[in-house]
Amino acid sequence: MIRSPRLAALFLALLGGLVGGASVAAEPVSTSRFGSVAIDGHDPAAYHTLSREPQAAAVDGTKAHEVEYKGATWRFVSAESAARFAAEPERYAPAYNGHCANALSLGEGLIRTDGTHWEIFGEALFLFYAARGRTRWLEGDWETYREAADAAWTTLSK
After folding, report:
1. What is the CA radius of gyration of the chain?
2. In sequence order, what DSSP letters do the residues of 98-153 get, joined into one string?
3. Helix (H) and strand (E) counts for the chain?
4. For 109-115, which contacts have Cβ atoms below 8 Å and span 24 or more sequence positions?
5. With bands split at pLDDT 50, 70 and 90, how would you rate the model's confidence at 158?
């Protein structure tokens, strides 16, 4: 029990912000724990131009090039990259709004990612919490894993 009226008011304000913030976006986006920056500030459009073998490092976006999408702030390396994303966010945004594709496929729920472990399957960008999830998808039947992840996403993103 919180005895101080000031602490109680602060607690309620914080709780309201957390609950209210979660309901703003139509779907959950993988953001930092204490902010609204998606996928740890990595440029989602840049992944589509990176080398996949060997896998290149994700590209950091900057505060100078931001786009608001689905209640989150997405950062980009350049104005051109931000414009590409703004024109076609469905093409460049990662599947499951950046949550771990592998965790979803295994029924483990919505796990945040930081954008460092990634792969493009088909034309879609998938992010993973850890390298072993990406490896599982690369070495296994990613299409079957995607079906399971899609089903979990449909349930969990509502």
Report:
1. 17
2. GS-HHHHHTT-------SSEEEEETTEEEEESSHHHHHHHHHTTHHHHHHHHHHHH
3. 6, 4
4. 109/152, 109/156, 110/28, 110/30, 110/156, 112/30, 112/31, 112/33, 113/30, 113/39, 113/40, 114/39, 114/40, 114/42, 115/39, 115/40, 115/41, 115/42, 115/58
5. confident
pLDDT score of 30 more than 50: yes
Instruction: Give, for 63, the enclosing helix (H) or strand (E).
Output: strand 62-69
| Distance, CA of 34 to CA of 126 (rounded, Å) | 23
Tokens 């949550």, located at residue? 99
**28 cis-preceded (ω within 30 degrees of 0):** no
Cβ neighbors of 36 (< 8 A, separation 6 or more) are: 21, 71, 72, 73
33 — pLDDT class (breaks 50, 70, 90): confident
Q: Are 149 and 101 in contact (CB under 8 A)?
A: yes
Which distant-in-sequence residues (6+ apart) come within 8 Å of 158 by Cβ?
none
